[in-house]
Amino acid sequence: MTSETVILLGFNAIKMAIKISAIPLLAAMITGLIISILQASTQINEMTLSFIPKILSVIITILIFGSWMLRTFVEYMVSLLNQIPFMLGS
């Protein structure tokens, strides 16, 4: 196994992690932005007010996109496990 192979494996793992986590993170960011705009317009400065909507939006996002996220992770792991004999042979 060469250093290029290790770098490629690390790059693919990071790319897959970003791809999977992007949707829940975007949902939390958008929810936080909406709550912040509402807080600014109503002049309510409660820091804990945005916590529950963010958690709910992330949970709903995972419920909706969870099967895709799991399928993406499983496909990556299967391809990684299928590459092991070729990595050991070289």
From TrEMBL:
Keywords tagged on the record: Bacterial flagellum, Cell membrane, Membrane, Transmembrane, Transmembrane helix
Membrane topology: Multi-pass membrane protein
Entry's Gene Ontology BP terms: bacterial-type flagellum assembly; protein secretion
Transmembrane segments: 20-39, 51-70
Compartment(s): Cell membrane; Bacterial flagellum basal body
InterPro entries: Bac_export_3, FliQ
Coiled-coil intervals: none
An annotated GO cellular component: plasma membrane
Pfam families, A to Z: Bac_export_3
Protein family membership: Belongs to the FliQ/MopD/SpaQ family.
Record's function text: Role in flagellar biosynthesis.
Protein name: Flagellar biosynthetic protein FliQ
Source organism of this protein record: Wigglesworthia glossinidia brevipalpis
Gene from which this protein is expressed: fliQ
